[in-house]
Amino acid sequence: MTVSNLKQSRPDTAKPKINWSRVEEADNFAKTVKLYRQGKYDEDSFRRFRLQHGAYGTRMTGDYAMVRIKIPAGEIYPNQLEKISQLSEQFSIGSAHFSTRENIQLHWVVLEDVSEIFRGLTEVGLTSREACGNTIRNVMCSPLSGVCPDEEFDSTPYALATARFFLRNPMVQNLPRKFKFNFTCCEKHGMVRMVDVGLIPQIREVDGTTQRGFKIFLGGGLGNKSFVGYQLEEFTPEEDLVYTSMAVLRIFDRLGDRKNMARNRMRYLVNDMGWEKFQNLVLKERAIVRATQSVITQLEVIHTPNEIKRPIRITDESGTSITDGYARWLKTNTVKQKQANYRSIFITLEAGDITASQLNALADLIRDFSSEGKARFGFVQNVALRYVHEDDLPRLYSNLLESGLAKSGALTMTAPIGCSGTTSCNLALTNSHRLAKEIQRKLLELKFDEDDDLSDSSIKISGCPNSCGQHGIATIGFFGGGGRVGKDMYANYQMSLGGRSDGDTMLGLTCLRVPAKRVIPVILKIIEIFKQNKKSDDTLQSWIHRVVNNNEDTEIKSINDIKKVLEPLTIPPTKEEDPDFYLDYGDDTSYHTKTGKGECAA
Amino acid sequence: MRCLTDSGKITTDIDSLRSEIRDKSVRVIDVRREDDYKQDHIPTAVNLPLANLLSDDSPESVLKLMNSMGIDNETSVVVYDDTFGALASRVAWTFEYLGHSDVTLLETTYSNWKSLELESDSKIPEIQPKEHTLNLQPNILATADYLQSAKERNDVILIDNRERLNFLEQHIPGAISLPYRTLATKDKILRPKDDMKRLLENRGITENSEIITYCGSVGTLSGLAYYALKSAGLSNTKLYVRSFKEWKNLQKPTEKQEDASYWDLSAE
Ligand code: HEM
Ligand code: SF4
């Protein structure tokens, strides 16, 4: 009898529906890296090739890459998490990173090992193809799509179908610039106005029959210069989804700026042309696309419903004692679903970082607790387990505690976003990543996650003006730069206030520069003056919204008034008084700015 | 005398070991702590905690250990541990260094053996001491001095088997990083041969080179790498057994990845 290979891991309740991978791409990548190393492939074409396959360069070195694994619509399955756990230990730093766009990133990967990661991903049907480069990036979907009490229908199948239609599609292999789709559930939970194409599902009643469709927003986006998107038309029926997407992409492909890298996202085209002209072009182009398709092109939307099956308990029910943290966690990390007796629970990670063993733990938690057998990535470097039966919540909480995944405040301001910053990004000026972690630790220590006034606000940090950390849509946003006293430099952040990405989308307004080591005191001070001046039903977000729009009548009337209060906190001490001030977080050598060649536009 | 590199056998699979145990044709060595061993172990296994070997790993004293475990020049030895094969590798390498070539690693760990519900017991076998001759194999050992001069040669590849973050933080100049986790699969201590070969070839690690492996302190992780390389047919491999700990104590030069705060990306 042969006993080897008999060992089985626990059976999965749900399996991925779509295989996104192609094993020949791994071989091809390995071959191309060899040719490149032998000098038979020039630097620029290699870079384009590498980015098309989802591998970024790394800070100050050509030897390492970052691999960005796409999770279309944010749906991830237990076996996929386990594979990524293994790959992170084999080829990366033993941790993986959950991004703001439903990607998982493995950093500090030896360039020659990238193909091995691709190969591993094919075993679980995942790809990093077109995760970077001038093409359609990961298609996002709200983590609450399908369970949100306010949604009209579940847009997940449409997000998946859109991702499938465009992946490896010749039409989008060489766009002027990257291009992003976000599907959402409702107005409140999406990010539809801050993206090239944003979609909210809608149902319309025509002559007594209901029709599915979308509210589509075009031309928004964050970056060195950010814009808010415009709504294309009242209602776009579902049959027109693919034609509208194709029309927009054809216009962008034809008219987008291919020379000026700093201004070639579609939002600049929309802005330069003016919305009405752009809108007309899209509608006309759509008519052409519709008329010229030789066969009717439609998205392959898979409508088979997910099986919802509460996992069977094998373990003993008794013995779970409810700990102190439970109520706090229940309040700040879970939401009720539209399906009775079920909740979605959010896991917040420090700046999106998760260890290999936590990835494995997460896979088991999905199997043991999620009745849909998979998890969903969120927009803020987090992940959600959905369809958790309310009776199972205390036990889930104690399991999360064991794996270090029970940090509270997931749905509050105490879970900031930090881009990668100087931990790996070539363009970074500051360690935004570590700063986000420091802020989270401090705010949780102060139990600010339990403060209802703070729950709908957000803190987001980028390590340079490029906005990967989405600082522009944060209630309190920061982007990094360098400050100087004489010849001594220190890490410094530009702070903006009042940004938001909901129905009242606006970009935060610049307030003042805050040295890295003063960011936490400044945040605390803002909260303090808010508490002094708030009206009884104010949240920090609603108060700041009034202040930045000059609609406030207390002593703090404008952003300038806030600035005046904060300014004293931001005055640099001398190096003798406070040497620590001149060190960025996570660095014990004196601060200096240093950047390499950026690849954002490549 | 059978030579390991000739037969090419690096690991022994579970089924072969079970039949060899039944035939009483093998000496099994358990490299876990004494307490764990006493609880249960693979039938007939003798215990050699790595610490016992390391407390004095001079050839004479290791030879005495081998004799006391009933190993002579002809004994077929299989080693296992519960540390993904790294401790077992260090023991196997030491035996090989002393001139014992018929030593292989169990293809899996003891935990995995147990989870397959294979036989185990807590009996401590009676051992007849034997006489092994000493026939040192210096060609598989790298000392600090040797490494220092070999490093300068073009045909030498130095491999660091510690985790990536430790490598970025500090390493021997010129080393390349191949974390020990890369060597294994989910349930085997070593990747399949072809898999390993492809991975090494991508990294430019080929049989045209002499290879030296090292890790953090006592040559365990790099011992596993030594066997991984051999399993892929790269037999011109040496283990820098005193590894980075000695290198640093000797205050030899080190190198690091500059200008990046990679530690802050770790969720540990
Ligand atoms: C001028 C150069 C760059 C610009 C303008 C830029 C812009 C952006 C923007 C606007 C986002 C926000 C995504 C969204 O929510 O829509 C983003 C995300 C991101 N960027 Fe960049 N970026 C640049 C370069 C880089 C570089 C060099 C890196 C590091 C290798 C990087 C890493 C990231 C990461 C990790 C995200 C998170 C979201 C994701 O998964 O795609 N970016 N970038
Ligand atoms: S915002 Fe700047 S520092 Fe942060 S990831 Fe983007 S380019 Fe890098």
TrEMBL record, chain A:
Locate the transmembrane regions by residue number: none
Superkingdom, natural source: Archaea
Record GO terms (molecular function): 4 iron, 4 sulfur cluster binding; heme binding; metal ion binding; oxidoreductase activity
The protein's UniProt keywords, in alphabetical order, are:
4Fe-4S, Heme, Iron, Iron-sulfur, Metal-binding, Oxidoreductase
Tell me if Heme is a UniProt keyword of this record. Answer: yes
Which InterPro entries has this protein been placed in?
A: NIR_SIR_4Fe-4S (IPR051329), NiRdtase/SiRdtase_haem-b_fer (IPR005117), Nit/Sulf_reduc_fer-like_dom_sf (IPR036136), NO2/SO3_Rdtase_4Fe4S_dom (IPR006067), NO2/SO3_Rdtase_4Fe4S_sf (IPR045854), NO2/SO3_Rdtase_FeS/sirohaem_BS (IPR006066)
Q: State if Transmembrane is listed as a keyword.
A: no
Q: For the Nitrite/sulphite reductase 4Fe-4S domain, which residue ranges apply?
A: 132-285, 413-547
In this chain the Nitrite/Sulfite reductase ferredoxin-like domain maps to: 61-123, 336-402
Q: Name one Pfam family in it.
A: NIR_SIR
PANTHER family according to UniProt: BLR3264 PROTEIN, FERREDOXIN--NITRITE REDUCTASE, CHLOROPLASTIC
The protein depicted here goes by the name: Nitrite/sulfite reductase
